[in-house]
Structures are given as structure tokens and as C-alpha cells.
Specification:
By secondary structure, this protein is of the alpha/beta class. The protein is built from 15 helices and 24 strands. Strands 1, 2, 3, 4, 5, 6 and 17 form a seven-stranded mixed sheet that branches. A seven-stranded mixed sheet has the order 20-19-18-21-22-24-23, with helices on both faces. It is elongated. The structure holds flavin-adenine dinucleotide. Flavin-adenine dinucleotide (FAD) binds next to helix 1, helix 4 and helix 8.
Length: 501
Amino acid sequence: MLLDCAVVGGGPAGLSASLVLGRARRKTILFDDNKPRNAVTNEAHGYLTRDGINPQEMKKIAHAELSHYPDVRIEKQRVKEVKKVNGLFHLTTENGESFQSKKLILAAGLKEILPAVKHVEEFYGMSLFNCPYCDGWELKDQPLAIISESQWAFHMAKMVSNWSNDLVVCTNGKSKLTDEEKRILESQGIIIREEKIKSLSGKSGKLEEIEFDGGQKIQRTGGFVTPDWKQASSIGESLGCRLNDKGGIEVDSFKRTTIEGVFACGDTVIEGPAQLIIAASEGSMAAFGVNADLVEEKFAKKKELGLMENNFSKSKHTHHHGGKIAYLESAARKAELSPERLMDMIPLKKADHILDFGAGTGYFTLPFAQKVDGTVYALDIDQTMLEMIRSKAEQEHITNIQLILAGNDRLPLPDASVDVIMASLVLHEVNPLEETLQQFMNVLKSGGHFICIELEPTQASERAPRITCAKMEEKLVNSGMQIIEKKFLTEFLYVLIAKKQ
Ligand SMILES: Cc1cc2nc3c(=O)[nH]c(=O)nc-3n(C[C@H](O)[C@H](O)[C@H](O)COP(=O)(O)OP(=O)(O)OC[C@H]3O[C@@H](n4cnc5c(N)ncnc54)[C@H](O)[C@@H]3O)c2cc1C
């Protein structure tokens, strides 16, 4: 069965996403091998109504809540691999089972890399923690250590001083503290020990003593460390999701990653503080994103199928009217590909001249013209479309658009005169395509960009002309262009960005 969404990771992020999806009647599968980051701790703090709860108890309650929603299934196993094939996600689990879904939510969390201090693992999660908001209250007014080899030592010491003023910063022989930072900390009565730690000791997870290499010992009852993080699962990276500078998966406000159809939430997108309640809230947002995109795709597809049938029965030169205008101007189209998003995909310069080949209603022409000072040539075979663009440009006082009534027979522009050419949902109708691409190469400046937007053929589109992404890529390369980006924005809609060498 094709699922609406597969969720990888069943911590608060994945569980919360699954709850929202289940309530939205989306066929959802949640995979979890139950090795969360906080497995080392007995109590989770700061989650409103669940303050101090055991993390596994919290998971149990979440599973019970999810069991009310028949569209959600929980699989207690690890996802080994995810591949994206023709816009669908193919998941393989460690047990060798396969699943397919339209969307994917990554909620696999992080793993910590603790400083290399002997016995640190015995105390981590029991009396040594990483987040004062989570565990500072329990350690308040105690003699604490900050064990940190990183540049976060200064920040952590300042933060923790809010919970206790008996602090020793231990940098384990790898101090990154500047002289100024040391001076500031010491002026607040915070002690700094920069020598290597020999070992930690204590009983049943409760820290008692820190011994340094020289044999000196200090008594501490707990404290904080500043670990490094790594992704708990490599699935995001293997799919090509871009990471932020903290190593988290980059997402927008609806938790969409840079790969179409892939969402990410919780610790895996780490950018700032990480907590259970933040992870749960992000899971909720990811589910909103998934559901919203599925809804938009459903309506866009209906329009597009109607449009293709229209096209088939009409002559080639009247293809823009009726349903197509509605589609070209629709919210569904904006959701699939906003002009702003497209403009972000190329290094657009103020002085650029742009050719919008098959400009239609000016969906891209007008935003491009607002963005650049150069001329934007709106070329279309249909006078009605050009009139629409003229009237919109007048209303918005845009003066750098030049309308060109022409087909693909001969581009009425000088060689090497434009910086960017775009052709959206038009090249599938051009025959022979090679000749038009050759003309594009002629009018493009060296180093100029070509943006091609097209639809991948499907069974439902059999009767209407379409061209596969692979075929289009081949044609662009044969015409002498270099592909620099290839992306599926929805299951069928793809963008190819090429450069003239
Ligand atoms: C010591 C410690 C104490 C903490 N204390 C608190 C606290 O008191 N309060 C608080 O709010 N926060 C606390 N946190 C932070 C909190 O644990 C995290 O912010 C939170 O767990 C993040 O939730 P998540 O759903 O993103 O990831 P996780 O809770 O880590 O869940 C991810 C899940 O995905 C699973 N998974 C990973 N890869 C796969 C795969 N390929 N297939 C299937 N499943 C997979 C993992 O096994 C795991 O069960 C603490 C963290 C630590 C380390």
C-alpha cells in the first residue's frame, strides 16, 4: 500500500507528527528503534503537564494516544535505507521489509559525542547533563563542574552560574577560553582548571570527585558537559538534504528540507536549544507541512489533468486559454513553485537581462522584472497572454518588460544578449526541441543560466505531450549546457538549471 507519510524516529518529534497526521486521516507509518538521546536519564523536565516524567513512560502514553487513530501504524524497527524513486519514498527496514510513501518525515534525533574523559558515560544523564534548562533546577546551589573542551565553555559557565555560584570549569587540557573570558569568569568567583582530567568517580551515577593528571582532586556533586552532536541517522544526508552550520538538517518554517517531499523536525534539525517540548512542537509543524502539501498536490493534479486533456483536443497554438490561465495563476502553482523560490536557485544580478520563453500570464515575468534592472523579455505565441502581462505591468508600474509576440521558430534577440532564460511548462510542446535549445545557446551570454520547468510523464498523462526529466537533461547536455541543479518540486514537477559554459 502507498502510504501518505513515513516518519523515521519515534521520539517526541516523530510521535507528535504522527498524532497530527493520524487526526488528519493520513495513512502514516512511524518507525522507531527506541534509542533516544535521553535514554540515559530517568527524568525529563520542563514539559508542561509532564514535568519530571520518565521518558519511556511518556512514550508509552504517546503510543496509547496514537492507538486511537486507525491510520497510524507503529513499527518498532530501524529504517536502514530510504531511496526516492519517481517522487516516491522507498523505505527498507533492518528486518528487510519494504514500504512506500508519498512524504517522509525525518525525526531520528541526534547522538552526542562526549568529551574524552574517563568514566564520563557513568554520570551522563544522572548527575552530569548538557542543558541547564532541563536539569539545572535539580542541581541548584550544589558544587558543580562544567566539563568542556569546546568554545561553549564560557557560555555554559555563564548560564549555569544562574543555578549555582560554586562552579569549576574543567577544560581537560584543551582550553578554548580566551584571556578575556577567563578574566570575566574569575571575576565572578568561577574557578578554571585547564589541566587534563585523569578520571571521574562517584557512586550509582552520582558524581563525587574529579581527579586531574597531576593527582589533585576536587569534590563536585554534578555538573554540565558540552558534547558535540552527530545525526542519529544518515538518511537525511543520503537523500541530499542540506545541513545547517550546526550539523542539523536545514528546514523552512513548515519543516520542509531542501529535498522535495522530505520534512525534518526535532533534534535532527538542531539550530538552537533542544528540548522535548520543542521537538514535539516541530513535529506538529512538520505534519501541518505534509498535510498542506498533499492537499495542494491533490488539487493541482486535478487541474493539471484537466488542463492536459484540454491541450490534447486543442490546437498547439491555443494552449494557454481557459483552464491553463486558472492553473498559471493558482495558489496550487504558488505552493509548488513560487517565483521567489525559483529566483533563489540562481545567482541573479541586478543588471541581468532575462528571457521568459512562453511567458503565459507573466507569473515569472513580473517578479523577475521587479528583481532586476535589466530588461525582461516576455515571449509568447499568444497575444492575449501578452496583453495580460502588459496590463499587470502597468498596474504595478513596472517598466522594464519587453513583450515579444513570437513562437520558437526564431528568437528575435541578438546573440549573447541575455543572462537568464527560463521556460516553464512549454518545452514539451516544442518540436524539434534541439533547434530551440540551440537558439537559447546563441542568445545566452557565456556563464548564463537556463531554467527549465516541466512535468514528468505519468500513466494519466499518456495522451498529453510530456518529457521526462532524464530526457530533458540529456537534451540540455547535448546542446552544450552544464546541468547545475536538478530537483523534483512535487511528485511530477521538476526543475533543471543549466549553465552555458
Ligand atoms: C541527558 C539528557 C537529558 C535531557 N533532559 C531533558 C529534559 O529534562 N527535558 C527536555 O525537554 N529535554 C531533555 N533532553 C533533550 C531531549 O531528550 C531531546 O531534545 C528530545 O529527545 C528530542 O526529541 P526527538 O524526537 O527529536 O529525538 P529523540 O527523542 O532522540 O528520538 C529519536 C528516535 O528516533 C529513533 N531512530 C533514529 N534513527 C532511526 C531509524 N533509522 N529508524 C527508526 N528509528 C530511528 C531513535 O532510536 C529515537 O527513538 C535531554 C537530553 C539528554 C541527552
